[in-house]
Design a protein that fits this description.
Structural class: alpha+beta
Number of helices: 18
Number of strands: 44
Distance between the termini: 92 Å
Strand order of the largest sheet: 36-35-32-33-39
């Protein structure tokens, strides 16, 4: 290698230089440029030059959060033309990164359109996407107009186009991630929670010499956009202390169990991208390094649900053992190294000194910068207030002599002469006379001395406050704390990344937590075929709401109690059976409309849900019993339905023109009470109904009169042999025989009565039954329910002659008369009864 020297020989017009010296000088210039003007962020605002130019340019152009978005191509052109002497790709990539919620913990740009994805998809071209500043970016640049930071001309060399050396940076420099490779230096800064960092800054203003251990009680550690779980505290302590450290972060994985399968569901991932995680899992499965999983990696992630990667477990697999293998062999667990290198500089000077710093030194430096910003803002405001006071003094003189000033205007050759005359006559300064001379004569005559006097008093108060602020550092620090608290209230949010201080990397997973906790639910099916899940007690007793208009989904068909881990079985009018987990039902409020069941289940357009059941398990001694309108019945063990899913399976084979009228989930040994629309009710024993396979036509349940059809079925469960913990599955099933049990019979025209079960004789299956309700001409039996006196019922009815305006009536069963089988019924409502819903006893208050 040639020896470097400063030898330089010039011969005529040719200058000779040592190549090694020239190269060294050029590389030093290049290295300094990369370090200070490209790769490293400033410790005062946490931004690199290209990011700062994008935000500043968008602010100057008015692309703010309260205005419509603009084409990204317009932003890129603006930044290239005025601020950034590099290619369009560098500007657009930096702007897109500032808009990505999976990259930035707190996005500084609001993007519209395809801004890329966590799966590694590239953003759309800048002619398609749009963007504007986020409110957080505007807070970052607050007070920029108050001469708080130095400005310099851009490469455009236009004195009107200036860019700041750094921003006021009202938000700490470590809330968003940053990485870059310079010459001989590199930085990799993790994101942190804004509220935690600002609280730490407030604490440091009072205690600058705080220890790292004290700091870690306020800032727990990094807080990634994707969430995840950091294992241990050693790596966090290292980079908080020295600026350099290494952490291990894991994905958050939950166990999802359905009647058909068990799955590991990845709900949060390390900050490496979903595409990399999925590839690493697939490679581990193909190489045989992970056992116990089916060879399928399903990515069900979307914008609404977030990350959801499903790994189906084999039947004999241990979830904890499989998850331990996944952490060891895939990118569900990764190590991240941090090196917090920032550029530092003196106040009002560009940052030129790169330095690796710990969190304490960095935040103390940023606090000092904020004190400097507030000081310069106060100085600027004080100067402007004094200038305005000076002008007000002149305006008050002008108001007192308005008529004379008008005459001076009229006598003067031009405004300049009028201005000089006003200055000489009233001893005004150039600034005072310029304001008056710039007015029209009408404005001069309307000068309001009292208005200016009030403004002057307000300004004098403001000047005193600013002077006190500048003379008392404690007041300045108190104001800084107050503004930090305001930022916490405005932008603070909950931590996403869990810091597991007790966990160790080499310890196996002991338990996989369930995806959904076992919580009680109230499930609601409406006459509009919508479904929703409500908190327990949503339809409890309402003694003060006995009458009232129906609100939306209160057009109820069925209410049942269950748990989030239950399976929900749905029987349709066409004889098909569907099943889905209860936790997949939409959570809603009582007044919400719910989700159409056809969006959750593969129902045909002409198919309607008949009944829903919640099942904790598909027990061998329980049965699904289905009744058709033509009087058929089919009984099949619940165990036959374990594999049913949202796509559905055919259960009861129906004759042409027939449809399912009712369905029950029962335990053997009880009695059925089946009713037709002509008012007949048949009571027969379960022993006479033989169980059969899932797909079948069934047998005759009840002999129907000509033109009549079966409309309702109830089941009276015998007390003998009943398990101690019996879950009510619907308002018609699992009613235990008791002396007070009665059959509530309701007609379409609003007639009702209770009939004692003992008044209904026990007969053989496939007979006609006996009359349970004497119907008036044109009336039909609507439905029947098995009730106890204390049961609460919700009736939905429509007044006579009305086509809408449905009403509700809430009664206890004991308020409806208990009458003989052949006796008359009482009319509950003067109108048409549409539905009657028995509130589950578990929900009564």
């Amino acid at each position: 290698m040639a020896r470097m020297s400063d030898r330089s020989v010039e011969q005529g017009t040719i200058r000779e230089e040592d190549f090694a010296v020239l190269l060294a000088r050029a590389f030093a210039t290049y290295g300094l440029s990369v370090v200070t003007d490209r790769a490293l962020p400033d410790a005062r605002d946490g931004l690199k030059p290209v990011q700062r130019r994008i935000l500043t340019g968008m602010r100057e152009a008015g692309y703010r959060s309260d205005r419509p978005t603009v084409k990204s191509a317009e932003v890129v052109g603006l930044i290239l033309g005025n601020y950034h002497p590099h290619g369009d790709a560098s500007v657009y990539e930096a702007a897109v990164r500032l808009a990505q919620s999976f990259t930035m913990r707190y996005p500084l740009i609001e993007g519209q359109g395809n801004m890329g994805s966590e799966d590694g998809d590239a953003p759309a071209a800048y002619r398609y996407t749009e963007m504007r500043l986020s409110p957080l970016a505007e807070a970052l640049m607050a007070d920029l107009e108050c001469e708080t930071v130095p400005l310099h001309p851009t490469y455009k060399q236009d004195p009107k186009v200036l860019e700041p050396d750094y921003l006021p940076g009202r938000l700490p420099p470590v809330i968003n991630p940053s990485s870059g490779i310079a010459v001989g230096l590199a930085t990799n800064i993790p994101p942190h929670n804004l509220a935690e960092v600002l609280r730490a800054c407030i604490a440091l203003l009072d205690q600058p010499e705080m220890s790292v251990e004290q700091l870690m009680t306020i800032i727990q550690g990094p807080d990634f956009p994707q969430g995840g779980r950091v294992i241990g505290l050693d790596g966090i302590r290292d980079y908080f202390t020295t600026g350099k450290g290494r952490i291990v972060i894991r994905a958050e994985v939950r166990l999802e169990e359905t009647p058909r399968s068990r799955s590991l569901v990845i709900v949060q991932i390390p900050p490496v991208g979903r595409d990399r995680v999925k590839v690493s899992i697939a490679e581990a499965l193909n190489a045989g390094r992970v056992e116990g999983l089916l060879p399928d990696v399903r990515d069900e992630s979307d914008a609404e649900k977030g990350t959801r990667i499903v790994l189906d477990l084999r039947k004999d697999a241990d979830p904890a053992r499989v998850l331990t293998q996944l952490y060891q062999e895939t990118d569900l667990q990764v190590s991240l190294s941090f090196q917090m290198v920032f550029l530092f500089g003196e106040p009002m000077q560009p940052a030129r000194q790169p330095r690796q710093v710990g969190m304490l030194e960095l935040l103390n430096y940023w606090n000092a910068h904020q004190v400097d910003v507030l000081t310069r803002r106060a100085q600027f405001q004080l100067r402007k207030a004094r200038e305005r006071l000076h002008v007000l003094d002149g305006l008050m003189i002008g108001a007192a002599n308005a008529q004379e000033i008008v005459r001076l205007f009229q006598q003067a050759e031009d405004r300049a002469a009028a201005r000089r005359a006003i200055e000489e006559r009233y001893k005004l300064t150039a600034a005072q006379s310029e304001v008056i001379a710039g007015m029209t004569l009408a404005q001069v005559t309307r000068l309001d001395a009292q208005k200016y006097a009030r403004e002057r008093e307000e300004l004098l108060t403001r000047v005193a406050e600013l002077e006190h602020l500048l003379s008392d550092r404690r007041a300045l620090v108190a104001l800084l704390k107050k503004e930090m608290q305001q930022l916490i209230r405005r932008f603070g949010d909950a931590r996403r990344t869990i810091i597991d201080a007790q966990a160790r990397v080499d310890e196996p997973v002991r338990e996989v937590l369930p995806l959904y906790e076992r919580t009680p639910l109230t499930l609601v099916l409406t006459r509009a075929a919508t479904v929703k899940a409500l908190p327990p007690g949503a339809y409890g007793s309402r003694p003060t709401e006995r009458y009232g208009p129906v609100r939306g989904d209160e057009q109820l068909r069925q209410i049942l109690a269950g748990y989030s881990q239950d399976a929900v079985l749905c029987v349709s009018s066409s004889g098909r059976v569907f099943q889905l987990p209860a936790f997949r039902l939409p959570q809603a409020t009582r007044s919400a409309r719910g989700e159409p069941l056809a969006r959750l289940l593969a129902l045909n357009p002409d198919e309607e849900p008949v009944a829903l059941f919640t099942l904790a398990a598909h027990e061998e001694d329980r049965y699904l019993v289905t009744f058709s309108r033509q009087g058929k019945v089919k009984k099949s063990p619940l165990s036959e339905y374990r594999t049913v899913d949202e796509e559905g399976l055919q259960d009861m084979k129906l004759a042409e023109g027939d449809a399912v009228a009712a369905a029950l989930v029962i335990r053997a040994g009880g009695e059925y009470l089946v009713s037709s629309e002509s008012g007949q009710t048949l009571r027969f024993a379960d022993e006479s109904l033989r169980a059969q396979g899932r797909a079948g036509q069934g047998v005759m349940a009840m002999t129907l009169a000509t033109g009549s059809r079966l409309v309702s079925a109830c089941y009276l469960e015998q007390l003998q042999g009943l398990p101690a913990e019996s879950t009510q599955q619907s308002e018609q099933a699992d009613r235990v025989a008791a002396p007070t049990t009665a059959l509530l019979v309701l007609s379409e025209q609003g007639y009702a009565k209770r009939v004692a079960v003992d008044d209904l004789p026990l007969r053989g299956r496939a007979t006609a039954g006996v009359s349970s309700l004497a119907l008036v001409p044109g009336d039909h039996l609507l439905t029947t329910l098995l009730v106890q006196p204390t049961d609460q019922l919700l009736f939905i009815w429509r007044p006579e002659g009305a086509s809408k305006g449905e009403q509700t009536l809430v009664l206890h069963a004991q308020e409806i008369p208990l009458l003989g089988r052949a006796g008359p019924a009482q009319r509950l409502v003067e109108g048409r009864l549409l539905a009657a819903v028995l509130l589950p006893r578990a929900l009564d208050s």
